[in-house]
Write a structure and sequence with these properties.
With 363 residues, the chain is of the alpha/beta class. The chain contains 12 helices and 13 strands. The longest helix has 21 residues, at 260-280. It binds pyridoxal-5'-phosphate.
Length: 363
């Protein structure tokens, strides 16, 4: 399928027309024009407001994986210690990525249908003494939300570690207070709750983190070090994507105009509809408790009398696209992405109706 009739993939999500309009303009050079830096600065300010932070915001081109790498490579050197707090594939993924460039990475893991246990993190970290602790706010593959980030952030700071958090698939759909959670490096993608194309990445970086970034002094395409004062010095390490920067401005303005409170309420309401409707038709929620479930994505077990492939094909025949899974969850757990533009009551209801039809046909 080139386009989805009913698109409920947990990212990339459908991009609203108002945002796509950003590509109608034949923009000048982002390297040369004051207007670009003004727009960049405006997006920094809007993002700070969304994240409740005074930390500096860095907006780079490239999909979110580019800043997951940046956060690790810019804060850690070979043989240094990192602890990945994990309740899912992205959580453990941080450790695998760091090991790939020689970091001594430990994992503090709980089953993927749960959320991290702060006491376990404290015990592990106190023993291991990592330079960096990583965590994931919404574990998209598990459909869970780590609601105790503030506790983990407090532990990181008590033990003198930097706190790096992937909030790629939560911010914009869930309220998160970056400063209250002591998040030193926060990572946000464009193609999830912000309903943009997978083209930009947004990082919030604390003063403590900037100091570490300067001492590590990593160079590379994704390096943070030359982004600290971009709007002030009017100089960037590479030509930026003005169209996406404009699209981000439209997206953030839409959230501010609707008001973040209403946006979060809309996500919660639609998530509840999805969970209730799914359970009513006999689907089993993947998260062990409904309280672990994220307002941005719902994960259910694949119904027993289907393989994932059969289930997915039957849904696709009716125009519905949902997310499968990866790693240990592949073939077992599927996801419905109701984030950003897809946090829409009617859309989710239509999608769930299709799932009900397909299940009924087999029963
Ligand atoms: C989507 C996502 C990313 C980026 O991963 P892609 O698979 O490249 O889209 C990173 N972290 C989380 C938690 C995500 O949901």
């Amino acid at each position: 399928m080139e386009r989805y009739k009913i698109g409920l993939i947990p990212g990339p999500v459908s991009v609203p027309t108002e945002i796509r309009d950003a590509w109608k303009i034949d923009y000048a050079s982002s390297d040369l024009e004051d207007e670009f830096f003004t727009l960049y600065h405006e997006n920094q300010t809007l993002t700070q407001k969304l994240l409740h932070t005074r930390n500096k915001i860095v907006i780079t081109s490239g999909e979110a994986m580019s800043i997951l790498w940046a956060a690790l490579k810019c804060t850690l050197k070979q043989n240094e210690k990192m602890l990945a707090v994990s309740s899912g594939l992205f959580g453990t993924g941080f450790a695998e990525m760091a090991r790939a460039f020689g970091v001594n990475a430990g994992v503090c893991e709980v089953p993927y249908d749960e959320i991290p246990d702060a006491q376990k993190v404290y015990d592990h970290a106190k023993n291991f003494r990592p330079k960096v602790i990583t965590a994931v706010h919404c574990e998209t593959p598990s459909g869970t939300l780590t609601t105790n980030l503030a506790e983990i952030g407090a532990i990181a700071h008590e033990l003198g570690a930097l706190f790096v958090v992937d909030f790629v698939s939560s911010v914009g759909g869930v309220d998160l207070d970056v400063d209250a959670c002591n998040i030193d490096v926060g990572l946000l993608g464009s193609q999830k709750c912000l309903s943009l194309t997978p083209s930009l990445s947004i990082s919030s970086i604390s003063q403590r983190a900037w100091e570490v970034i300067k001492s590590v002094n990593y160079s590379g395409y994704e390096a943070y070090k030359d982004w600290e004062d971009v709007p002030e010095i009017h100089y960037m390490p590479y030509t930026h994507d003005w169209h996406s920067m404009k699209a981000l401005n439209i997206s953030l303005s839409r959230i501010m105009n609707e008001t973040p409170e209403k946006v979060y309420a809309r996500h919660s309401e639609v998530a509840k509809l999805c969970r209730d409707f799914g359970q009513e038709m006999g689907l089993k929620l993947f998260p062990k408790s409904e309280y672990f479930s994220s307002p941005t994505v719902t994960a259910f077990y694949v119904p027993e009398n289907f393989t994932w492939k059969e289930f997915d094909s039957a849904l696709r025949e009716r125009g519905l696209a949902i997310g499968g899974n990866y790693g240990v969850l592949a073939g077992k757990v599927f996801r419905i992405g109701h984030m950003g533009n897809q946090a829409d009551y009617e859309l989710v209801k239509n999608g769930m109706n299709v799932i009900r039809e397909v299940i009924k046909e087999r029963a």
